[in-house]
């Protein structure tokens, strides 16, 4: 039987943020997503955000898989007013449906049937502020559109989505950068700003139907939640955008390996398509950044399985807190939860910790 998803013990906290890195892959790893598919997925994603109350603070849509960094705020104390509920419904339902619900609520209020009002609210609110419901509905709605458009039937996704709990602060900003650097690691673009189906690409260039405000607000939250900043696009300018750009640059430099070939000549192999060191250096200088100031750059250039399979990523105390809150899920001999990152994740060892101790030979 499948194990339940890891959920933080403080999921209903009004002050402690809750982030999850979610990954889902297309069945058989088929390259199913072209420009139209990515645009429609993003549109559906934004509608589901507005309905559910979950916030996608960072994302990247690739040809056969997707990455989302999702914040799941708690339900408001006391629930929603009728007006707020109806506004949420407008994100995914047409006005005819909303009008029917509005009449039901008005009739119930007029007759004093509070239990009926609660039933009407509950019909929709169980899908709000819940990670599993958000992802399930998002993936189902996109599958319906995809199957209808491509005249196919059946499941589009390989399996249930993976999720990793991510601490706010260093872990959240590192995870965001890891997500936005996916197209660089894949050799699709040299600069993450050039990939339009990611949070950074949208924040910089905007989309065909927007100006990137939603993406900028999400990235502000990813980088500044630990300081109490809300998802406010106005805070993107200057410090936040520059800090994030510097982190991304550290992960966008191509890896170059030198060795002595058969001829005795020194040969150079470019192992990843990214910015050249010279290009990155010039850009960093433009941003007044000193070489080597950004930590974790080496790790961000690699695929790090901890970011998708580590269950929990954050400081040692954070990982141990989650472990303590779900102690029954681990073996009785295990004394604590935090494990140092190894392999591709080793540059972050001592800074970030993982709940799972993954084998390094398959990273």
Discrete helix count: 14
The CATH architecture category of the largest domain equals 2-Layer Sandwich
What's the level 1 CATH class of the largest domain?
Alpha Beta
The proportion of residues forming helix, as a percent range, comes to 40-55%
Taking the alpha carbons of the first and last residues, their distance comes to 26 Å
Strand percentage lies at 5-15%
How does this structure look, described?
With 363 residues, the protein is an alpha+beta fold. The chain folds into two domains: 19-74 and 135-362, Alpha-Beta Plaits, CATH 3.30.70; 82-125, no CATH class. Helix content is 42%, strand content 12%. The protein contains 14 helices and nine strands. The protein has helices at 35-52, 82-89, 95-110, 114-125, 131-150, 170-180, 182-185, 199-205, 213-224, 236-252, 277-286, 297-300, 306-309, 316-325, and strands at 19-25, 55-61, 65-71, 162-166, 256-260, 266-270, 312-314, 339-340, 353-354. The strands form two sheets. A seven-stranded mixed sheet has the order 2-3-1-4-7-9-8, sandwiched between helices. Helix 6 (170-180) packs antiparallel against helix 9 and helix 9 packs across helix 10. The protein starts with 18 loop residues before the first strand and ends in a 9-residue tail after the last strand. Mean pLDDT is 85; it is low at 255-272 and 288-294.
């Amino acid at each position: 039987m499948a194990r339940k998803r890891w959920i933080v013990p403080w999921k209903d906290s009004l002050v402690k943020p809750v982030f999850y890195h979610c990954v889902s892959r297309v069945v058989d790893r088929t390259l199913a997503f072209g420009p139209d598919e990515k645009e429609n997925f993003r549109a559906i994603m934004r509608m589901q955000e507005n309905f559910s109350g979950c916030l996608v603070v960072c994302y990247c849509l690739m040809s056969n898989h997707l990455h989302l960094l999702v914040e799941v705020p708690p339900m408001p104390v006391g629930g929603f007013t009728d007006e707020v509920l109806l506004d949420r419904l407008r994100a995914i339902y047409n006005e005819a449906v909303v009008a029917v619900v509005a009449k039901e609520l008005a009739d119930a209020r007029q007759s004093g049937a509070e239990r009926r009002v609660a039933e009407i609210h509950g019909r929709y609110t169980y899908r709000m502020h819940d990670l599993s419901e958000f992802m399930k509905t998002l993936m189902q709605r996109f599958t319906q559109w995809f199957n209808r458009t491509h005249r196919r039937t059946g499941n589009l996704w390989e399996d249930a989505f993976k999720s990793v709990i991510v601490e706010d602060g260093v872990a959240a900003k590192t995870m965001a950068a890891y997500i936005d650097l996916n197209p660089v690691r894949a050799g699709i673009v040299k600069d993450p700003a050039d990939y339009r189906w990611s949070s950074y690409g949208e924040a910089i260039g905007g989309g065909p139907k927007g100006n990137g405000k939603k993406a900028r607000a999400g990235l502000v939250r990813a980088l500044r939640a630990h300081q109490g900043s809300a998802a406010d696009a106005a805070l993107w300018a200057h410090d936040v955008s520059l800090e994030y750009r510097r982190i991304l640059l550290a992960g966008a430099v191509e890896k170059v390996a030198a060795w002595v070939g058969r001829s005795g000549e020194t040969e150079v192999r470019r192992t990843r398509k990214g910015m050249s060191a010279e290009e990155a250096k010039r850009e960093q200088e433009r941003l007044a950044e000193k070489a080597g100031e950004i930590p974790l750059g080496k790790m961000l250039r690699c695929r790090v399985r901890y970011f998708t399979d580590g269950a929990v990523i954050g400081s040692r105390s954070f990982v141990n807190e989650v472990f303590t809150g779900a102690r029954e899920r681990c073996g009785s001999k295990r004394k604590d939860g935090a494990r140092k990152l190894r392999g591709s994740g080793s540059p972050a060892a001592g800074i970030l910790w993982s709940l799972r101790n993954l084998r390094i030979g398959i990273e």
